[in-house]
# Entry
Amino acid sequence: MPPRPLSLPFAVAVVLGLPALARGATVTLDEPEVSQEECLARASYSVELSWDLGSSSGSSVEILGSDASGCSETDATTAVVVDNLSTSQTSYPQTGDSILTLAAVLSAAGRSSETCQGSDAKVYVCVRLLDGSGNEVAIGSASLTLQLEKPPSPVDVSVSVGEQGLWVSWAEGTATTDAPASSKTYRAFASANGATYASTETTGTSAHISGLQDGTIYDVWVVAYSSAGNPSDDSTHTTGTPQDVLTFWDLYEQSGGKDAGGCSHGGGAGLLSLLGVGWVVRRARRRAGGGGGAPGQPHREEDRP
# Structure
């Protein structure tokens, strides 16, 4: 088989003795979005990444931070944050590595501490493969979004009582200039006597708060969260009081039924009255459904009382 011809740029580089043009690489960030709280804690927040250099070969790998995709050092603010990594390494950090802090990436990209305030922003993390002469062989980049904006507060909050708990429902708020982010998840809260309880986080518009005390009045509100976890302001607060829920057996006993063995004088009538309600509902459903048989089928005698 004849040798594969070189691409024109690569052939020119070889003839002129220039370094070969850099090939693409793939970079993946474990967490591509950073919340405002994480951004403010940038000195301790660890940026973790992995990469694939494909079939490229070289002598060392370095990681860069930049304010532009591709991490150009001629037309962007870019600096090396980790260097002299082994070409066999495909992720960072590994055992023995120092953490790569968000503060280091922001500094390399020329971002000040004020970056963590205001509107959303992006910086870029790049991985570059170098040959023995320090020339770039392959490079890849990934964007890191500083998701700083908050979502609007939930609206139309309502509360339904339950036994030792409350059901809370709400509607998504409308984005504003001060709260332009989308609402990704929600959590409902209830507070009384210095203790606060929370529902599990949900993508829906209702939730249950459990572990509450029946008969206690709770202050209730809902908070929305952006995709990076920025919380909205609290919704309008309302109240709810968990209450013991009456079961069929509770109603039977209240109407005079006994716990075991027979009924009292009024208990039989109470039980029959409760059962009667069920019969009336069942009979009404049969009539509404055409007698309880399949469509087009005649009534059966056993369906009649």
